[in-house]
Amino acid sequence: MGTSIPSSPARKLSAAAAKLRLLKKLRCTLRYEKRAWESGAVLVAGVDEVGRGSLFGPVVAAAVILDRDYRMRGLRDSKLLPAERREILAERIREHCVAWAVAAVDAARIDQINIYQASRVAMRDAVLQLAPAADHLLIDAMRIDCELPQNAIIHGDALSASIAAASILAKVHRDRMMREWDSVFPAYGLASHKGYSTPKHIAALREFGPTPLHRQSFAPVWQNPTPQEVFDFDSHEGDPPEIDDPI
Description:
By secondary structure, the protein is α/β, with parallel strands linked by helices. The protein contains ten helices and five strands, in the order ααββαβααββααααα.
């Protein structure tokens, strides 16, 4: 009789890995756009945000109205695309879409109103910048304060071509911002992790403390006891700064 070899227990996937596996199985199509067109809409905008879980910097949203007569190949959730591919697609989206816009809400505002509301504000601001204006919105998993007809689609950036396009533009824009801030705060590794909660980022927070652009309301930031770094232009001696009259 042969000796049986005990099988090793199956490795349990993390929530993030499980979600990524699910997203890879979803097909990004124009199904939702076609439903909106059939209902009478003409300018259907996809809307998405990036940076919601980051510890640093703004949350960025984009809105995109695709040209229904131009087939944009390769669109999918920005998280599933290599950086080089995102850059190529972003250029193609901007060149061939009917309209696009990007908006951001900074860390200070996020701390004031919370990240969920800040994401909604960024999305609304992006939508309001579109020219021509949209007449129907497809939004990734939430609704915004806007009178336009809108559909909140769970995993929308992996299912709707318009939302995927918005996801790509927002991701490319925010990543570029993080690379620029990396040169200002090189100790934090922002160019590599884009402000998210990685071991390297947490270690830098413990050693150097948060910068003025970290989200002070996020636990890994406010739990850090190190004094906050201050920009040179934030501390002045002598006369107090002038304060504009409220409008």
